[in-house]
Amino acid sequence: MKQVNAEVIGIGTELLLGQIVNSNAQWLSSQLADLGVNVLYHQVVGDNEQRMTDVFALAESRSDLIIVTGGLGPTEDDATKQVVANLLNKSLYVHEDTMKEIENYYIQNGLSMSPNNKKQAELIEGSTLLPNAAGMAPGVAIHENETTWVLLPGVPSEMKSIMNEGGFQFIKRQVGVDATIHSKMLRFIGIGESQLEHDLQDLISGQTNPTIAPLAGNGEVSIRLTSKAATLDEAKDMLRETEAEIERRVGQYLYGSDDDTLEAKVMELLKEKGYSISSAESLTGGRFIDQLITIPGASEITKGSVVCYDTEVKSGLLEVPQLILETQGVVSSSCAETLAVNVADKLRSSIGISFTGVAGPSEQEGQPVGKVFIGIYVDGELPYAKEFHFNGDREGIRNRAVKKGFQLLYQMLTQ
């Protein structure tokens, strides 16, 4: 199969400053993978002609396909076409039909067109125009020196429109891709990245096609499986054997794949078992229930939440005995268990979950920052609480506590 290596370059100082997220690169990489194109590099460069020249020259030296987003507007710093033209020793010219379309737009809307709008109608000598049904500036595609260039507006809606209407077709014709890349994410909870990698070390070390990539983030770990084949069906078939072996080894930690989320899985299990749930949240301040109710259909199983941040709310509304508060404190397993039982009782749910702990920045009741208790009560059973010690700042500790709460529920519901 022919190997086609691609590079995606984003233009704009606003990307470097973090004012805009470079979602274009993510979308393009996903779409190109379906065509069997290997995206090996992402670059971002500001609106500076010399730095753009350096970045483009580097890309030309190592990539078969270069897609550039941004820098096609009418302002002085929109220099993408000029820099590429200079690099290819080509000139720019005004595409008359495009110029007429731009002029008509201003006439129809009763606006005055400034002279610099002419830049949007310029094409590179020998290039192909890619129509822009969502905006003014068309895309530009050119194959030169065994490299294919596709220049696109930075506005995501315009960029996607151009690619879907003609950009991908141009790429197929020029680079002659004859393969499909297929990826699948396997999502795990309750196992760390290092342990997961250890358990799969021989598979990872011997990988060729499919490839296996462990990924960590947001309190859980994932594995990205990627295969390349002549057709999508063949690529999927290649993944099945590897996926089956991974499940054989660490399947007890696997909760879903691709776009599955732990929160949605927990809600699905609650529905299946006919459970309802409520939460008592001190440390997390309602964050657990907020994540649950963002999922469509949550009203079927969610009763509500009590944010018991203040000790008086714990003792008054949720009736944590004074003896527990005085002898063990609010950051304790007894407090967490009582909160879980009483919130379930008061909100008439079959499950209660509670969160209490120290998010920081300072200790509480002599307890260190990051110490957290999560309590769970299921109607008719004894309550229990688990103790955890999380690292990180205040927000990180709260987020980890919520994720761990969903993990405990998932494990309890799947036993």
Brief write-up:
This protein has 415 residues and is α/β, with parallel strands linked by helices. The chain has 15 helices and 17 strands.
Rg measurement, Å: 28 Å
Helix coverage percent of residues? 40-55%
Distance between the termini: 46 Å
What is the number of domains?
A: 3
CATH superfamily of the largest domain: MoaB/Mog-like domain
> On the 0-100 scale, what is the average pLDDT?
93
Report the CATH C-level class of the largest domain. Alpha Beta
Would you give the CATH topology of the largest domain? Molybdenum Cofactor Biosythetic Enzyme, Chain A
The biggest sheet, with number of strands, parallel, antiparallel or mixed sense and barrel status, is: 6 strands, mixed
How would you sum up the global shape? elongated
* Gross CATH architecture of the largest domain: 3-Layer(aba) Sandwich
Protein name: Putative competence-damage inducible protein
Keywords: Coiled coil
Coiled coil: 225-252
InterPro entries: CinA (IPR050101), CinA-like_C (IPR036653), CinA_C (IPR008136), CinA_KH (IPR041424), Competence-induced_CinA (IPR008135), MoaB/Mog-like_dom_sf (IPR036425), MoaB/Mog_dom (IPR001453)
Written account of the structure:
The chain has about 425 residues and is α/β, with parallel strands linked by helices. It folds into 3 domains: about 5-175, 3-Layer(aba) Sandwich (Molybdenum Cofactor Biosythetic Enzyme, Chain A), CATH 3.40.980; about 180-255, Alpha-Beta Plaits (2-Layer Sandwich); about 260-415, Maf protein. Helices cover about 40% and strands about 25% of the residues. The relative contact order is 0.08.
